[in-house]
Amino acid sequence: MVGLLLPIFLDSGELTLNEVRPVVEEMLDYHVEYKEYSPALIQRTFKIFIDQFDPAKIYLTASEIEPYFDLSEKKAKQAAQAYQNNRFPDFVVLNQLVNKAIERSVEWREELQRAQIIGNQKNQSVAGESYLEFATSEAQLKQRLQKQLVQILEEEKRKREKEMWGPELKEKIASYWHNRYVRQEKYYASNSPALLAQHILKAAARSFDAHTAFFTHEEALELRASLEKQFEGIGVVLREGIDGITIADLIPGGPAARNGQVEIGDIIVQINGELLNQTSYDEALKMLQSEAVPYIELTLKTTKRGNKEGELRVVQLKREKILLEQERVYHTALPVEGGIIGKITLPSFYESEDGSSCERDMREAIRALKRQGNLKGIVLDMRENSGGFLNQAVRVAGLFMTSGVVVISKYSQGQVRYLRNIDGRIYYEGPLVILTSRASASAAEIVAQALQDYGTAIIVGDERTYGKGTIQYQTVTDSQAQAFFKVTIGRYYTVSGRSTQMDGVKADIVVPTPFAAFKIGERYLEFPLRSDQMPACYNDPLTDLDIQTKSWFQKNYIPNLQPKLSQWQELLPVLQQRSASRLAQNNECQRFLAQLHEMQSLGSPAYANRNWWRGPDWQIVEAVEIVRDMISLSKSP
Questions:
Q1: Integer angstrom CA distances of residue 257 from 250, 253, 262
Q2: Angstrom distance (rounded) from CA 197 to CA 88
Q3: How many CB atoms lie within 10 A of CB 10?
Q4: pLDDT digits 0-9 by tens, 298-309
Q5: Sign of the dihedral through C-alpha 135, 136, 142, 146
Q6: Pseudo-torsion of CA 307, 309, 310, 316, nearest 10°?
Q7: Residue 53 in contact with residue 102, Cβ under 8 Å?
Q8: Beta-carbon-side half-sphere exposure of residue 507 (alpha carbons within 13 Å)
Q9: Residue 450 and residue 9: Cα distance in Å, rounded?
């Protein structure tokens, strides 16, 4: 959907331009590669500053951005010197250029709306149009803006019944989107030093590498909830539209869902007695997140047709801790001769201060499956797992091996740290398929690569995973943090010494997923770090331990080291052949591959269409069949 063209940057409270250099220097202290804010990084920062303001390239012309996109070495050195003195004159001038571009865009939108040009074009399909280069003239820029607004109307029209579409609704939509543009633009058009400082910090952080970032307080809260899979609130998901702020979804088990009086589609008229008629999505969200009051009072208007349409009702809900159960580990079982095959979905690597974690949930899933029957095989589905806490990856891998190194971390000064599983117990030992995709990243790649290294699992899925082999330190989950950021502090390697950086984890058996249609992965990001290798350490050297600790490890850990197994690799040719034969005869697979080929022929289709495959989940079906093969072949004499 054509939605937010500008990122939402909310006010940062106490943040000033004087805070920029201390925060940047703190991130540099941690960073694995960069230790000074060099002219080269400053050149990147100016480019990113422009990109984060105008990603759709509908505000600025090529001639306007040229001095900043191609910043001379002399100007970069001058900017670096100014930075050392806590001064940012070039960014102030660039911000003035941004303000002028916004004023020009507002004037053009109002002109287009007055002339009723928007929405009157015939046969002008611009769906999915994007621009790789900045406009060469103001005339071209104005044309782009017009097309963008036409596209918005086309998409809004597709959502509605044909008979509802008329001049009044069209005008209402155009007015809504104009106001939405204005609200977003004010975060840049403002001369607030706090907002300028925020924009500089965001651009400077991204200049280090693809995964270093600076966050606002609101962004940090959202990221914390994602990492911990829990948050405090009333359990509603909001959506902004032409009718205002509406209830888009209810979180299962949350206060709103349990109450029974809150319905999807309801329009929120008031929050705690305050009317929302001119309130933005972000302002409404802040009101719901406020910790000042334990209860939230919503005045809702129903949108359901019938006697209740337009009815107002007041609902009072208590804020409470909500677990995002739908984003946590879940499992099912399939019957097989002599027992069952377990399917475990691991959406991310999460943990929270109350002790809940994906490792605990995984252990319980394995135990629950064993209670259901003789657990003869497992498919661990990590196709949409983009990572999470590193220590959780070590612990999850440890469920499928005895003792041994799972991850080797190397930091900026060359320090090497070994992250080990020291439990010594295996919670499951047998046929194991790990299902991955191009979207499987970071901690998911650690688990897949480590268990592939040890020979305890077969990797099935796209040819390779995402390719993120770097470690980030973050302050998002630190309640005492003065600034919220994440910064790349090191690279990781698995026990074989291989890094997943750039190349990802290679599948043993290729069973393409819908993510194969897209150019996603570390190699497609701006400023990715390079990849390298380390010596393998199946025989753990214990070189990072002191004498006393090493003594304990030699006695209790070394005797239980996980051996490198070869059974599944030896059977791999047969497993690959059987899988290829099944897929050649699978009609759904062939239909999928034909559509995949069509998608790939388009070049780089929008990732927003990641749900393009509407057929059955034949990848999980094939993964189960591979486990069946592993079970039968392991019985062979």
A1: 6, 6, 7
A2: 9
A3: 16
A4: 999 887 755 566
A5: negative
A6: 90
A7: no
A8: 25
A9: 39
pLDDT band with cut points at 50, 70 and 90 for residue 7: very low
Any residues with CB less than 8 A from the CB of 500 and at least 6 apart, and which? 445, 446, 449, 465, 467, 468, 469, 492, 494
Residue 628: pLDDT over 80:
yes
Q: Round to whole Å and give the CA distance between 366 and 343.
A: 10
Nearest to 140 by CA among 64, 46, 69: 64
- Containing 273, the helix (H) or strand (E) segment is none
The answer to whether residues 627 and 341 touch, using CB atoms and an 8 Å cutoff, is yes
**pLDDT tens digits, residue range 375-401?**
999 999 999 999 988 999 999 999 999
Residue 539: exposure state from Cβ atoms within 10 A (0-12, 13-18, ≥19): exposed
223 burial (CB, 10 Å; 0-12 / 13-18 / 19+) is middle
Distance of CA 286 to the CA centre of its chain: 22
Spatial contact of 552 and 512, defined as CB atoms under 8 Å apart? no
**Start-to-end C-alpha separation, the chain:** 57
Q: What share of residues in the chain are helix, strand, coil (percent, to 5)? A: 45, 20, 40
> Nearest CA to 452 among 438, 435, 466, 467?
435
Based on the number of CB atoms within 10 Å of its own CB, is 601 exposed (0-12), middle (13-18) or buried (19 or more)? exposed
Running DSSP on this structure, what letter comes out for residue 325?
G
Beta partners for residue 404, in sequence order = 421
Instruction: Kindly state the tokens that stand for 511.
Output: 């069973």
| Exposed/middle/buried for residue 584 (C-beta within 10 Å: 0-12, 13-18, 19+) | exposed
SS3 210: coil
What phi and psi, each to the nearest 5 degrees, are found at residue 558? -55, -40
Q: pLDDT tens digit string along 570-592? A: 999 999 999 999 999 999 999 99
